[in-house]
Write a structure and sequence with these properties.
Blueprint (H helix, E strand, L loop, with lengths): L4 H10 L2 E6 L3 H9 L9 E6 L3 H8 L17 H16 L6 H20 L6 E11 L19 E8 L3 E11 L2
Antiparallel strand pairs: 1-2, 3-5, 4-5
Length: about 180
Amino acid sequence: MMMSDNAKDRAARSWKKRGSVSSLSNHEFRRKEFHGHIKDSMSTVSYMDEPSQRDDISRLTVRMENTYQLGPPKHFPVVTVNHILKDVLTSYLQVEEYEPELCRQMTKTISEVIKAQVKDLMIPRYKLIVIVYIGQLKRQSILIGSRCLWDPKSDTFSSYAFRNSSLFALANVYAVYLE
């Protein structure tokens, strides 16, 4: 049974590559051994390289030509994203009590959920940055500022603040248009 060149290449890449790297070449090792220095003093670093899915994905990437489009064909739906922020924060934090470790994990979870829901809106050519803050309500104040270079005609943000009896949360989604 004959294999095509492409099939052979794929089979060769699927095998694990193994090897080692030595700090001394064979010549240096023999010289040290010959001159009476410490025998068997060679350090070796072993490695194992497995093919990754990332290599396959990068080869499958399609290169797109420039569109020379300077503005978004559809503007970012701020009101819709505000509703998403309100729904997610309310559903995740309505009955929660402030616990530092739980809130640390919740900020990660909530930001991923928000990003996934906003991406589901399929707004083309916008980079999304989602930041969620959660803190304890204890008669303190907090000032949160952010700065960015952007075009006010096409770049925008959505924000929603949530409170319950023991914690507050602030979620921001920044939408930056990619030209």
